[in-house]
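Researcher: Structure prediction, please.
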Amino acid sequence: EPGAPWDRLKKFRGIARLRMAAESPDATQQQWDDARTDLEAAIAADPTDIESAVTLSQYWDILADRAEKANQRDLATKNFQAGTEILANFLKANPTNPLAILSLVRRDMVMSIREFQIAQEAARNSGKAADLNELAVKASKDFTERAKPKLDEAVTAASALPPAKIDSQVVGLLRQMEQAVDGAARLSRTQALLASVPDKDATPDHFMM
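Model: Predicted structure follows.
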């Protein structure tokens, strides 16, 4: 029965299967499919399972990377977008999940870089290399304008969580994205998030960045 409670446990098998498939050059398509099926079942059983959602998005990222290496650019883009859709759908169901918010910011950054590289190649091929600086400035400005409010949204969402839920993955990704998006802020968002954790509730996870 789809979405049955015991399907939640398939998360652990799915994560293990994906790791083994990714590490094996001889992994079969069935092994990849099994990992995906387990992770999809886990999310169906528990729509709040961010770990399964992130791992499933990584499944698509691996396929995107393989397509890119095979010079299948359109397929690479399609696979990457499938991974983004996983997290976007998760965020619709869990709009205050900080890890989902931050993961989508990172994916937006990756896609922005990819789109700029494609535009850069097209400009060079058409003899318009002089336009590259303008393209770079516009791409960076557009991404920054989209990303800054999302960082603020992630901090607000994370600050509302119980301290135990603010783990190193959230803090580390916030730090990474804040440095990339708003270096002038000097990690003020990350520091504010850490400051929101009472000393009595702090764990080593809060400081593993």
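Model: The chain has eight helices and no strands.
Researcher: Thanks, that helps.
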